[in-house]
Amino acid sequence: MAGNLKDSVEFERAYDRYSSRVYASALRVLRDPARAEDVTQDVFLRLWSDPSRYDPKRGGLATYLQLMAHSRALDIWRSEQAGARAVERVGADASRDPGVAEGPDRLAERRALRGALIGALRRLPPNQRDALVLRYFGELTLAELARRLGVPFGTAKGRVRLGLQKLSAELEPDAA
To answer: Global pTM?
Structure first.
């Protein structure tokens, strides 16, 4: 069942037939119904946008779609794990004993800044937060970031830029 997937009727049949399998594949990885639905939508959107990526000689459509869902869900899960670890590292690095040379005023200022930064990061849209965390705390280049997130280079660059603008506006209100 992989006729002309650009034909809306054929595409609808494929969606009706395989969407529950695609959703189940994503849900097994993410364990979150809303995010699994997002992955399902993304998989079928990609299929509609570029049906030529599916090669029936390499296997059935169900297998192809489930593999796409599984891969996309793993990418999201890994990105979230890396983001969580980076935020923990920021907290751990900032809370280390600054030593004798640093007075209580400076220590309080650093703790307040750390709290403000972590709070501001948490308020960013997830795609911008993930991009910033992976870029700066994961030390990825923009090209590596784009590959890791599965987005075009310009999209990755834009997410970092927008995230930095929002952080700057929130952390330095006079600069906005």
So the answer is: 0.50
pLDDT by residue for the chain (176 residues), tens only, comes to: 556 777 889 889 999 999 999 999 999 999 989 989 999 999 999 999 889 889 889 889 999 999 999 988 988 887 777 666 666 666 665 555 545 456 777 777 778 877 888 888 888 888 888 888 888 777 778 888 888 888 888 898 899 899 888 888 887 765 44
**Backbone CA torsion sign across 83, 84, 89, 94:** positive
Q: Specify whether 58 is located in the same domain as 103.
A: no
The last residue of one of the domains, among 58, 73, 88, is 73
Q: Report which of 84, 83, 46 is spatially closest to residue 64, judged by C-alpha positions.
A: 46
